[in-house]
Amino acid sequence: MVDRNVAERLSSNSAFALELEGVGRQFGALVALADVNLRVQAGERRAILGSNGAGKTTLFNAVTGDFPPTAGRIRFFGEDVTNFPVQERIRRGLRRTYQISQLFAGLSVIDCVFVACRGVSRSRLSLLRPGAQDATMAQARAIARSVHLDDILDAPVSTLSHGQQRQLEIALALTGAPRFILFDEPAAGLSPAERRDLVAILNALPAHIGYIIIEHDLDVALRVSSYVTMMHNGRIFKEGAPAEIEEDEEVQAIYLGEGHG
Ligand SMILES: Nc1ncnc2c1ncn2[C@@H]1O[C@H](COP(=O)(O)OP(=O)(O)O)[C@@H](O)[C@H]1O
Ligand SMILES: [Mg+2]
């Protein structure tokens, strides 16, 4: 069943946001990632599951260029970006979430999102404060609303709860026309209520924005993805629909047996 789905997906002609071919990454003698073949369609929402040290974050680092692969090719919307610098991938619409920099601590939520929007817009050199009608400010407000921060637009970033900071990180990833976002354990440290909020935020993202989410919380992962990739020891060992993965005995033994979820 899993194999047939994979075959159908690989033979489809639709555009791929991301294609990895034989991707590997070594750190000295350590093989963190080996022969990874992965295809994610434009607009697709994919979960990557796997135990600690499986190579999930290394895979993200290879895709963003933070730690480029030592083997294989990576294509982003058809373009070979394997050796592109990080900034060139961002320019093409690839995003990942980063922890909020201390530089932003003194700003309000809306100013923080506004600065990020302006940073990628044509008027980035403008030093004028925007009026309420300013298009970039309107965009910033819409993004803040989409991550459920519209009630605290004027709160200083330094006063945000852990969950609200995670939401702000997603807001920053949404600035400047993203086409594909990499989320690395966005639910880590969130309360049950904040997790529900996160699931709602991800499921309400514009349909053209695809993502990969690395997530230990199986409940979150399976609610926000349409397809799941399992990793172990730097390799992909299984792919399938959320329901198939949830019921898979091998997955349960490797993944759930370690106390995650
Ligand atoms: N920058 C690095 N330098 C050396 N080893 C690394 C580096 N990043 C990751 N590793 C190693 O690669 C393996 C995979 O790590 P990682 O991708 O972080 O796993 P995961 O995110 O699935 O928990 C681990 O053994 C880890 O110690
Ligand atoms: Mg990791």
Distance between the termini: 25 Å
Total strands: the figure is 10
As laid out across the biggest beta sheet, the strand order is 6-7-8-3-9-10
Name of the CATH first level of the largest domain = Alpha Beta
Proportion in helices: 25-40%
SS content category = alpha/beta
- Classified in CATH, the superfamily of the largest domain is P-loop containing nucleotide triphosphate hydrolases
| Percent of residues in β-strands | 15-25%
Number of domains: 2
Could you tell me the CATH topology label of the largest domain: Rossmann fold
Shape: globular
Bound molecules: adenosine-5'-diphosphate, magnesium ion
- Average pLDDT figure: 89
SS summary, helix count: 10
Describe this protein's structure:
The chain is an alpha/beta fold. The protein has two domains: 1-93 and 178-261, Rossmann fold, CATH 3.40.50; 99-177, no CATH class. It has ten helices and ten strands. The strands form two sheets. It has a six-stranded mixed β-sheet. A four-stranded antiparallel β-sheet has the order 2-1-4-5, covered by helices on one side. The longest helix has 12 residues, at 135-146. 36% of the residues are buried. Bound molecules: adenosine-5'-diphosphate and magnesium ion (MG). The site of magnesium ion (MG) has 2 residues, from helix 2. Adenosine-5'-diphosphate binds at residues 27, 30, 32, 50, 52-58, 67.
